[in-house]
Amino acid sequence: MTLLNLVLGLPALGFFALLFVPRDKPQFVRGLAIAMALVTFIASIGLATGLRGDVAGMQFSTDVIWIPTPEIHFHVGIDGLSLWLVILSTLLTPICILISWRSIDKRVKEFYAFLLLLEFGLIGVFISLDLFLFYVFWEVSLVPMYFLIGIWGHERRIYAAVKFFLFTMAGSVLMLAAIIYLYNRAGTFDYAAILNLMAGGKLSFSPGQEMLLFLAFFVAFAIKVPLFPLHTWLPDAHVEAPTAGSVMLASVMLKMGTYGLLRYCVPLFSEAARRCAPWIIVLAIIGIIYGALVAMVQPNMKKLVAYSSVSHLGFVVLGIFSFTQLGFDGAVYQMLNHGISTGALFVLVGYLYERRHSLAIADFGGVATPAPWLSTIFLITTLASIGLPTLNNFVGEYLVLQGAAQANFRWAVFAAIGVILSACYMLWLYQRVFYGDTPEPVTDHVYDLNHREWAAILPLVAMMVWMGVYTPSFLPPITRANTAILDQSRMNVRFRVALPPAPYLSAREVPHAR
Amino acid sequence: MRADFFPQTVELLRFLPEMVLTVVGTLLMVLEPLGGQRWSKLYGHISLVGLAGALAAAVSAYSTPGPAFSGMLIADGFAAFFRVLVISVGILTVLASYRYLGREGVDTGEYHALILFSIVGQCIMVTANELIMIFIGLEISSIASYVLAGYLRDDKRANEAALKYFLLGSFATAFLLYGIAWIYGLTGSTNLTAIRTALLSHDSTASPILVAVSAALMLVGLGFKVSGAPFQIWAPDVYQGAPAPVSAFMSAGPKAAAFAVFLRIFMTAFAPIGSGWEPLVWLSALLSMTIGNFAALTQSNIKRLLAYSSIAHAGYVLVAVAARSETGTAAAMFYLAAYALMNIGAFAVIAHLSGKGERFVGVDDFAGLAVRQPFTAALLTVFLLSLIGVPLTGGFFGKFYIFKAALESHLVWLTVLGLLNSAVAAYYYLRILVVMYMHEPSEAASDAEPLGVGMKAALVLPALGTFILGIFPSALLAFASKSAVLVR
């Protein structure tokens, strides 16, 4: 039982425990849920301190056979790429429980049970090292989010929930086909074993096959990211979800897509990825600018933040497909930044909604007068989101732009427009909501942060500053993991060029690469 | 008279499940006029005991695998797998029927006797190694099912269902019989292995065209029985009209038995002309999946919706058949088991909620079930997620295994189209989840009585099975793979 298994198992344990709690004890349910989430978080901190810098490859790994034939392993482990995403999930879950404390008052038990199940699925996605296991967690995380949106969401929640489910499902079935195809060729689902087979030249694909496999994976991930033009589910899902759902969706679930791109698409199908990179980057840049422009004209705060996610995630994709070390590092850093700052934005918008019961920007104004602390925190988050130096987003955006500029200077120029636009829409939002005259409903209903709300938002603000000021706490493991991925992607290309095309090997002929 | 005319004890042992079921079924028919409705609960208990005995007999028959009655039957692993499956389906059906029959005022012994006889037929079908026995088994099973479909004899829809099922079913069986006659004429045998040998031998005088016609005729007959497109037209009307527990039964047991026969005939006897029938099965699989899923999208009656879904699921199993490999056969077997569990569970929930005269069978009648009966709703959620194919359920693993077999046999397009189909299917299953969890409670959900003991068992057992098949599929999969070798 490694620490990692504990981090994965605790939310599942919490889920089952909650199922057996009587439904007329909501306070006990909340207490149990937050206790489990906090214990999980504390355990996950142990992962960060325990991750060694001098060891290559995956750590805290467990590899046991789950199903003997077809050979499926329960193989989990983390490196610098997954580490912070796991911690992001474990950090945000207790925060989500805190912010739902009062706002979720119907079917409390199910809500927290689904939230913990979601955490279980998300952690699983980030630590799976077996393609089948990865797919299992990928789909499992879908179900609780579907219910979170569908049961506790706003008016158009059902439409949003079904759309969310179907979009993801449509993408992921193709990925399943590709995973099965890979298995039939390689004889294993193991990520490392497949990489080894490819590096050793024992497993190779014709350019056409590789392209199809790449696309099958890519579309599944691109829907999740979401990359323009596959983003249309996102504004609906974000706006209709309850605050906790929006936070988990934006902060962690979208990262499943970018994580998948970096972990699977780039090293496994590097040649196809490089061939497609210019096109994907064009889509990413369109996403950056389009997302920002659409965000600017939104009358609804949540929708504005949702479209800003499309824009921010465009940076991540740009970084990944620049195929530079800086671009990769920036992309991963930006994933975390977006998780923290957009998560915080959704939390704060949720606070405003709880007070005023409206998300329309027009219903607010002059909030700074009745709620000065809320305004201060919102301002810090806004500044973080637009990339002010000393706050977290600046680091990520800078690295991505630097990496993109190394690859192609024009990409960086266009992407930088997005940074400017983000300042426009965020500051304008801030101005309209917090300054100006204070209408009567705002004076009557808006009050400042209470202790519980402070407890939920303060860790996020602290992270914004920490990640913006002292990157050495976070960046070294990320860089190491990215170097490995970059090497892998280069190696596969070189082998592909050096070797003549291998004859077709059926699953039986390839010995198991364990 | 030959010395081996009379069957030996070991042969009788291999035939024990059928004998137990026949005896208990006959006993029920005798008890019925004596006890009438006073003993209505007793009939159910007796048939449960009979089924449990048959289950034990089926397992013990596997301890001495081998042929029986001059090779007409063969009690091998494949037969044991399907026998256990159809008998389990019977047990779940009986468990789900207690309250339902009482509510409709038709809790007679005949109902249970018919279920038992139908299972006898199915057991013979899956054990038969010879076309005539297959035909006899099919007829026993079908005739009992025809009656069961129209069991609510005052109900217009049930009558329609029974008549339709009977007429179209007889028509299809005639095709099968005609095909049997042709192949007998061509090869001089009705034994599956003998037919295969005859088709493989070089000095065979059988014209390839005539063999193809015979195979095509049987394909039509069996295609009807498994409700594969384009022979699926009957299924929605019959499943909608038949009493809910009977729909549960028909969509799981007879279908599984028909697929067992399908696999036996086409993987054993017609394996030599496999490249000929593969495109037909390919097409039928694609049509079944597409027609089933797209037609289900617009259904508002939940029984009809599940009927179309069962057509689609027949399509998935046909994909495994089209793979023409041992993996494919094993995948089909595994999927049929997983499908039986989740579909019976889903139909059992309908039987539980439908109310007297099956008033509440609209999708909207499930509204708010999660508020009124969270446990029932949670179980139905498990079944629906399994039907969608979400991981950790048997439905997902079965689907995964089917498409793995298909890709191994290079059926890339069929795999891609099939998987896209399963994404389409998610929509209509989600609709049920949506009304159950996200709408205000309806009259049906509010009126529903609490789960009875039988119904609880009929829901919890398949749900547990669904999870076991999804999380620990190895045992069943290993058995299926081992048995799949026998069919070739």
Descriptors:
heterodimer; A: 514 residues; mainly alpha; two-stranded antiparallel ribbon; 3% strand; B: 488 residues; two-stranded antiparallel sheet; 21 helices; 2 strands; globular
β-strand amount of chain B: under 5%
N-to-C order of helices and strands of chain A: HHEEHHHHHHHHHHHHHHHHHH
The proportion of residues in beta strands of chain A is: under 5%
Termini separation of chain B comes to 33 Å
Largest interface: pair, residues per side? A-B, 36 and 35 residues
**Structure summary, number of beta strands of chain B:** 2
**N-to-C span of chain A:** 22 Å
Sheet with most strands: strand arrangement of chain B: 1-2
What is the helix content of chain B? over 70%
Helix and strand content put the structural class of chain B at mainly alpha
Strand order of the largest sheet of chain A: 1-2
Unreliable stretches of chain A: 494-514
Shape of chain A: globular
Mean pLDDT of chain B: 88
Name the quaternary structure: heterodimer
Q: What's the number of helices of chain B?
A: 21
Largest sheet of chain A, if any? 2 strands, antiparallel
Rg value of chain B: 21 Å
How does this structure look, described?
The complex is a heterodimer of chains A (514) and B (488). Chain A is 74% helix and 3% strand. Chain A has 514 residues and is mostly helical. In chain A, a hairpin with a 4-residue loop joins strand 1 and strand 2 (72-78). Helix content of chain B is 77%, strand content 1%. Chain B has helices at 9-14, 16-35, 40-63, 77-104, 109-127, 131-149, 156-187, 192-200, 208-225, 234-241, 244-269, 274-296, 302-322, 326-353, 369-372, 374-388, 394-408, 412-438, 443-447, 453-471, 474-484; strands at residues 66-68, 73-75. Chain B has a two-stranded antiparallel sheet with strand order 1-2. In chain B, strand 1 and strand 2 (73-75) form a beta hairpin. The model of chain B has no long low-confidence stretch (mean pLDDT 88). At the A-B interface, helix 5, helix 6 and helix 7 of A face helix 16, helix 17, helix 18 and helix 21 of B.
